[in-house]
Design a protein that fits this description.
By secondary structure, the chain is α/β, with parallel strands linked by helices. It contains three helices and four strands; from the N terminus they run βαβαβαβ. Strand 3, helix 3 and strand 4 form a beta-alpha-beta unit.
């Protein structure tokens, strides 16, 4: 039996309008992981637009583990309301630590 690699998730709750959208976004990450041959690990959810605690926790897990893949609902989740930078800058930060970033919905 082959073990599927782990994929971590990241969602910004402030990029969504309600709890149902948050649940749908998380479901889309799980569907993406399954379709691409991954097991979905922790989904880090940023709840405070002034903070980036979930992003830093995600980055810490990438640094200390062998996880090399992250999925977001859309690339906008990397930058929406984030004082830390643009989606491209945060993507580069993850990729610097050898984590490829995918969007479940590439639009």
């Amino acid at each position: 039996m082959t073990t599927r690699p782990t994929l971590l998730g990241y969602v910004r709750a402030d990029a969504l309008s309600c709890a149902e959208e948050l649940a749908a976004a998380t479901d889309s990450l799980a569907a993406f992981a399954s379709a691409e041959g991954f097991t979905l690990g922790t989904v880090y959810t940023e709840r405070d637009s002034a903070e980036s605690a979930a992003f830093h926790a995600l980055l810490d897990e990438v640094k200390r583990s062998d996880v090399r893949a992250v999925v977001v609902p859309t690339m906008n989740h990397l930058g929406f309301g984030n004082p830390g930078g643009s989606p491209a800058a945060l993507q580069q930060h993850l990729e610097f630590h050898h984590a490829h970033v995918w969007a479940a919905d590439p639009r």
